[in-house]
Design a protein that fits this description.
Cofactor: Mg(2+)
Mean pLDDT: 92
CATH class: Alpha Beta
GO molecular function: guanine phosphoribosyltransferase activity; hypoxanthine phosphoribosyltransferase activity; magnesium ion binding; nucleotide binding
Radius of gyration: 16 Å
Distance between the termini: 24 Å
Pathway: Purine metabolism; GMP biosynthesis via salvage pathway; GMP from guanine: step 1/1; Purine metabolism; IMP biosynthesis via salvage pathway; IMP from hypoxanthine: step 1/1
Order of helices and strands: HEHEHEEEHEEE
Family: Belongs to the purine/pyrimidine phosphoribosyltransferase family.
Strand content: 25-35%
Bound molecules: inosinic acid, magnesium ion
Organism: Streptomyces aidingensis
Helix content: 10-25%
């Protein structure tokens, strides 16, 4: 799906596919350096992190294993509820493993602080976070995010895995939608 396929639903392209690729290559080099000689388990958070996981994993030189969790903090709308549920747990035991959480976006940080304490209690050898996007709200919560792709304004964005009502995940870029899409 491309810009033209969105027609009037697209307001703006915030981050292009080229910018995402370039930034992921930079971060991959840093992550490679950070895990030299170690086995790395990437934990992706479904469904939003599918694209960033796929592209980051391929940009890494480090051999990795991948596992997935599905958690839910939002309904179909654009506001965080603060309620986190596990919809799908990891398949593997992460005890004594080097775990890197791969996230699409940190907004309020509620989802991530919950995930950190949940995974932390399973006694991994290390637990770090990489997120493609971070909104200003996230700075208010005390979460140490080791790798951030882009700091973006406090706006609802879609594309590259991120959805509005389960749509727009298959855009290759990050964009914002016209107000009429949100039921205006
Ligand atoms: P948080 O708990 O407020 O940090 O929200 C985390 C989750 O909310 C993300 O993993 C996304 O699934 C979703 N989310 C937050 N902001 C956006 C956005 O701008 N577009 C699409 N999904 C979002
Ligand atoms: Mg997410």
């Amino acid at each position: 799906m491309q810009e033209k396929d969105l027609g009037a639903d697209l307001r703006s392209v915030l981050i292009t596919k080229q910018e995402i690729d370039a930034r992921l290559a930079e971060l991959a080099a840093k992550i490679d350096a950070g895990y030299e000689g170690k086995d790395l388990l990437l934990v992706g958070v479904l469904k939003g992190a599918v694209m960033v996981m796929a592209d980051l994993a391929r940009a890494l030189a480090t051999p990795v294993t991948m596992d997935w969790m599905a958690i839910s903090s939002y309904g179909a709308g654009t506001q965080s509820s603060g309620v986190v549920r596990i919809l799908k747990d990891l398949d593997t035991d992460i005890k004594d493993k080097h775990v890197l959480i791969v996230e699409d976006i940190i907004d309020s940080g509620l989802t991530l602080s919950w995930l950190l304490s949940n995974l932390g209690s399973r006694e991994p050898a290390s637990l770090e976070i990489m997120t493609l996007l971070r909104k200003p709200e996230a700075a208010k919560v005390d979460i140490d995010v080791k790798w951030v792709g882009f700091d973006i304004p406090s706006e609802f964005v879609v594309g590259y895995g991120l959805d509005y009502g389960e749509k727009y995940r298959n855009l290759p870029f990050i964009g914002t939608l016209a107000p009429h899409v949100y039921g205006g």
